[in-house]
Design a protein that fits this description.
The chain is an all-alpha fold. It contains seven helices and no strands. It has one domain. Helix 2 runs antiparallel to helix 3. InterPro entries: ComplexI_Subunit6.
């Protein structure tokens, strides 16, 4: 499962460079965030951190979608054939590299040590959720919440409903 998620992550990374419109880049970024959420959820004991990551990125993407759709004009979505052939070749090389190795990509050395300790999962769940709101990281969370709220207010102020969209329609 982890190998498939790594391949999807690599495909999204390659596709991101071929996108020219901001909305298609946002879609690829959202798919990549969902993929990273699944990878981090599989590596940890719970999905809370990955769920919080996805919700924060989704909120930021909604704000960016409102801002970009009010500013940019509609552009056609065109893919270059030569670029796609090069991407497919890189993808095949990457798939061969992943499936030819005998490495277990889902666990690194620290995760194996943690699982060997056989700590009670309820205790681990409580400790991991407490770290999010403890002293060093609670300031980062509060700053992140304030930044997202300020960005939301700025985008709402820029895109005034009475004035219509910011781009000119002829």
């Amino acid at each position: 499962m982890m190998k498939i998620l790594m391949i999807i992550s690599f495909i999204n990374t390659i596709l991101f460079y071929s996108m020219k419109t901001p909305l298609s880049m946002g879609l690829i970024l959202l798919i990549q965030t969902l993929n990273i959420t699944l990878i981090s959820g599989k590596m940890s004991l719970n999905f809370w951190f990955s769920y919080i990551l996805f919700l924060i990125m989704l909120g930021g993407m909604l704000i960016l979608f409102i801002y970009v759709s009010s500013l940019s004009s509609n552009q056609k979505f065109i893919l270059n054939k030569n670029y796609m052939i090069m991407n497919l070749m890189l993808l095949l090389i990457f798939i061969l590299m992943i499936f030819s190795t005998k490495l277990n990509l889902s666990m690194n050395l620290e995760m194996k040590k943690l699982m060997d300790l056989e700590i009670d999962q309820n205790f681990m769940l409580k400790m991991s959720l407490n770290k999010l709101y403890n002293n060093p990281t609670n300031q980062i969370m509060i700053m992140l919440m304030n930044y997202l709220l300020l960005t939301l207010f700025i985008v709402v102020k820029i895109t005034n409903i009475n004035m219509g969209s910011l781009r000119k329609s002829f």
